[in-house]
Amino acid sequence: MPIKKKKEKKFTLIRKRVPYLFIMPWIIGYLAFTLGPLAFSLVMSLFDWPIAGEAKFIGIDNFTKMFTADPQFYNSLLITFKFALIFVPLNLGVALILALLITQPIKGMKFFRTIFYLPAVVSGVAVSIIWGWMFNTEYGVFNYLLSFLGLEEPSWLIDPKWAIVAIVIASAWGVGTMMLIFYTDIKSIPHDMYEAAAIDGAGVIRQFISITIPSITPTILFNVITSVIAALQQLTLVLLLTGGGPLKSTYFYGLFVYNNAFKHHELGYASANAWFMFIIIMLFTLMIFKSSSAWVFYEAEVKKEKKEKREKKKKSEVKNNEDFQKA
Amino acid sequence: MKISKRHKIIVYSVLVIFSLYFVFPFLWALITAIKTEPEVFSYPPKFIPEELLFGNFVDAWNSQNFGVYFKNSVIVTVLTTIGQLISCSLVAYGFARYDFKYKNFLFVLLLSTMMIPWDVTMIPLYMQFNMLGWINTLKPLIVPAFFGSAYYIFLLRQFLMNIPKDLENAARIDGANEFQIFYKIFLPIMKAPLVLVAVLNVILVWNDYLGPLIYLQDKAKYTMTLGLASFQGVHELQIIPIMAITLVMVIPPVLVFIFAQKYIVEGISGSIK
Q1: How far apart are CA B92 and CA A164, in angstroms?
Q2: Where is the ABC transmembrane type-1 domain positioned along the sequence (chain B) (predicted)?
Q3: Rounded mean pLDDT of chain B?
Q4: Residue of chain B whose Cα is closest to the Cα of A178
Q5: Long-range contacts of B126-133 (CB under 8 A, 24+ apart)
């Protein structure tokens, strides 16, 4: 018996350590490439830290400078929020419309699905180059097509009023990922729900509002959060398409941080900028999550509620019975 | 479900209009890439070139060291994919198949890393790699992949959670050790989600611009994205080779997507629901 016990003990000891061995790569990576840099960046934000030369502790001066002495900070923030305000609802709407279209029982849907998704696998560099050429004021095909339709021909990337619109149009090209996420979710809604609604006389729009939308609210939440984060961090496209111009009209916050770090070599100040964005993103995510309890419905929760109700009913029935028997 | 003819016509027309928005830019890049220079700079633009100059692709390729850039991109993409597959499958297995102290805490920590904006860690990471002497090498782009990514780990874990526990218990009774169970039993089962991880990683890394931009300086170390972008900055008028290289650059991720489409759609539905 003691031998067996010893063996068992050894076995449980291994079992206790084994899981940590499996997750060890991530733990090491987290310490080296996430937690370490995260903490260090917070420290840096309190220093005047040039790329070459001595770093000097300056307390919260970087933050005060940001809020009181740098008009570019507010300008960039405003532009980025403006962009997010157009980009997020537009992309969400287009993605949802596309997803609904490709779930229609019509031939050739796989083909259209592929076409809509393809630009999403293309790099930001290629996107900016192709669209930059199409937006070209002199030879651009985009304005030619607009003139064909008798519409205004803006000087896209040269006109501060239109440059941000150009960026929205080019970045919406990657909406395919979001569409695919909506698509897989809509497809998983049971068919008989629609059939039952149709029998009850609900039209297409009614079905969409009462069945489709409530069923996909968790996915809407996921897409809202990821696209807000993506919009607030947009960089590659502006860096290459407009470089922040014309007249700093597309000087996004991401570009502001990037330039402070790698062009002006103010690493401490850029760290403070980055931390501010981190806090903004966390606040937004938190706010969206908080609001989600009002509009997101989880299947499991609905089931749980139903079950609880049923059990309550059962209990009261049992109690009634007992009361009855007592009497 | 049956739908009326009118409904069908409306759906198809909307689909075609949207298709134009998604396809036309590719088409226009191709038309531009095979034109002559005077044709490119003529207005109104020509939709059908007089001659189809497919030789433009060869000229564009030879105008810079794109052979080297391509090789660098392939090295980074292949190695990071191998790294992610190894590390993410191990970590996801650990989180999905075992109970251990602080598991939930660690998992929440893992998920929270997805919310950290890249610019917060960018500067310290740059300094860290600089201290290691890794700047201007491909290492900063490759090595972190061997420690896993939260999104892929999450995805694989969701898949592994759905497999009944009896599987490894039976193997344990048969005398297999813990690693053998992972390697011989679970790894083969994970084939589909692993393909999805590989595809997503190939698309992401092949297209990455900011990483190479920050860490690489020497042209011999450039990846395709950097080569292409450097092209654009200086020579605004070399639009033909730019379009040609852009199209070449787009081919690998598009091919990967077309071959692995099934896994992407299945994988997304598996990881979200």
Answers
A1: 41
A2: 70-260
A3: 88
A4: B268
A5: B126/B214, B126/B215, B127/A40, B127/A267, B128/A36, B128/A37, B129/B215
Q: Does the distance separating the beta carbons of B242 and A129 come in below 8 Å?
A: yes
Q: Which residues of A touch B203 (CB under 8 A)?
A: 121
The alpha carbon of A43 is separated from its chain's Cα centroid by a whole number of angstroms, namely 28
Mean pLDDT on B169-195: 88
Residues 21-50 of A with CB under 8 A from B: 21-23, 25-30, 32-34, 36-38, 40-41, 44
pLDDT, tens only, B145-154: 999 999 999 9
CA pair distance B158, A237, nearest whole angstrom:
33
Q: What is the 3-state secondary structure (H, E, C) of A129-174?
A: HHHHHHHCCCCCHHHHHHHHCCCCCCCCCCCHHHHHHHHHHHHHHH
Subunit contact B94:A22, Cβ cutoff 8 A? yes
- More confident site: A133 or B265: A133
Q: State how far residue B14 is from chain A, nearest Cα, in angstroms.
A: 8
Instruction: Name the pTM for this structure.
Output: 0.86
| Closest to A46 in 3D by CA, of A35, A37, A56, A36 | A56
Whole-number Å distance between alpha carbons of A179 and A163: 26
Yes or no: say if B207 and A122 are a contact pair by the CB < 8 Å rule. Answer: yes
Instruction: Tell whether A157 is within 8 A of chain B (Cβ).
Output: no
Where do the DSSP E strands lie in chain A? 47-48, 56-57
Return the closest-CA partner of residue B253 out of A227, A228, A127.
Answer: A127
Query: What pLDDT, in 10s, does the model give residues B9-46?
Result: 888 999 999 999 999 999 999 998 888 888 888 778 88
Our CA-based measurement puts residue B218 at a distance from the nearest CA of chain A, in whole angstroms, of: 16
User: Which pair of structure tokens corresponds to residue A178?
Assistant: 């979001």
Closest CA to A220 of A112, A300, A297, A283: A297
Q: Contacts of residue B248 in chain A, CB cutoff 8 Å?
A: none
The mean per-residue pLDDT over the stretch A213-218 comes to 89
Place of tokens 């489709």: A212
Q: Which chain A residue has its CA at the smallest distance from B26's CA?
A: A130
The pLDDT value given to residue A1: 45
A267 touches chain B (CB under 8 A): yes
Cβ within 8 Å of residue A16, ≥6 positions away: B100
CB atoms within 10 A of CB B40: 19
Choose the most confident range, by mean pLDDT, from A44-53, A91-100, B109-118. Answer: A91-100
Q: Is residue A7's pLDDT more than 80? A: no
The CA distance from A325 to the nearest CA of chain B, in Å, is: 45
